[in-house]
Predict the structure.
Amino acid sequence: MAKYKKLYTACLFINLFLLPLSTYGMLLGIASYFWDEAEGIVLSASRVAVRTGNSYVDEAAIEFTYSVDNVQYVSDIVSLNPRIQFKNRTFSLEKLKQYGVGKKVKIFYPALYPRYGVLEVGVKPSTFFMFFVSMLLLLTGRIFKGKITKINKVT
């Protein structure tokens, strides 16, 4: 029984963080299909070294400008990736080829918050995967909880 309690607690603890984040990512990704569109221009696309643990990794930092209702905005959000980023928004180096400096691009933004413009909308496969894993953990936790309840009834 102690084994099932530990497994149930582990599923519950992991899902405590994974389920809200993946659900938010799914909802945001789905809502982004209905965002407004604007024309924009890529201001800068550069290669930056980002520290990951004890080493540095080359990634792309991209900034673009667009105007909504005669107000100029600058954003650096390329896509709605599920990864948590605190200081800088960087992306894979393939994005440098796709979004070169001076290139005209379509910007998608929520109507109420036009300063949060992005270049790519939709739900990413990694977000689907996180949501699937969280649902699987939820089901697994229910199974372990059922086994714990069954063992408690027998004893």
Summary: The first helix runs from residue 2 to 32. Residues 29 and 96 are 23 Å apart (CA to CA). The chain has three helices and six strands.
